[in-house]
User: What shape does this take?
Amino acid sequence: MKVYTETITFSTSKRFELVDITYRVEEIVEKSGVRNGIALVFAPHATAAIIANEHESGLIEDILTKIKELTEPGSSKWKHNMIDDNAHAHIGSALIGADRAFPVINGHLVRGTWQNIFLVEMDGPRSRRRVVVVVLGE
Ligand code: ZN
Assistant: This one.
């Protein structure tokens, strides 16, 4: 079995933002030499998440609106806000998840037409966000 790992590094510019990393992940999968297997896309962060969905500007806003509704940024009910003003981002990361896995078939990452891969920034701007991509297979 082959295991290929690469880390994508970038900065974010807003408090809430979706960063499309689809093409960088696909490039890593193609470079890995793995023909059939699985690609794990993992954000080693407690205040960000990974999703796969449509890259449409209205929907991007809708997703961020819903995340804010669910996680209530700035709420005084969050105890973590007494030591750090980002409880909402931790909760968002816990609810959505910091990773997604994709099939790799015939050397390509498999995703739906309307499934781009995004890092969900919930506590930006950050000068350095990382996404680790592990491609496993043969
Ligand atoms: Zn915190």
Observations:
- Residues 80, 84, 86, 90 surround zinc ion (CB under 6 Å).
- The CA atoms of residues 26 and 109 lie 6 Å apart.
